[in-house]
Amino acid sequence: MDIKNLQQGAKARIKSTGQVVEIKRVSNHGFSIVRFKTGGDYMVLNDRLETAVVEPVKH
């Protein structure tokens, strides 16, 4: 993925699972630190992420 599309504090989606994560930090070396909703920070390669447009849940 192009690093220009990833921004700190934005939401992204993991391509293989579809899970939405929050981007904590973007590295110039091809990976990002992401935080899962269930907790924990992990390194993920940028090419495994895609920008996510998260719509609020309507009840």
**Rg of Cα set:** 11 Å
Outline the biggest β-sheet: 5 strands, antiparallel
DSSP strand (E) fraction? 35-45%
- Amino- and carboxy-terminal Cα gap: 34 Å
Secondary-structure content class? mainly beta
Q: Count all strands and give the number.
A: 5
Write a concise synopsis of the structure shown.
0% of the residues lie in helices and 41% in strands.
Task: Explain what you see.
The chain is mainly beta and 59 residues long. The protein contains no helices and five strands. It has strands spanning 11-14, 20-26, 31-35, 41-45, 49-51. A five-stranded antiparallel β-sheet has the order 4-3-2-1-5, with no helix packed on it. A hairpin with a 4-residue loop joins β2 and β3 (31-35). It starts with 10 loop residues before the first strand and ends in an 8-residue tail after the last strand.
Annotation keywords:
five-stranded antiparallel beta sheet, 59 residues, 5 strands, 41% strand, mainly beta
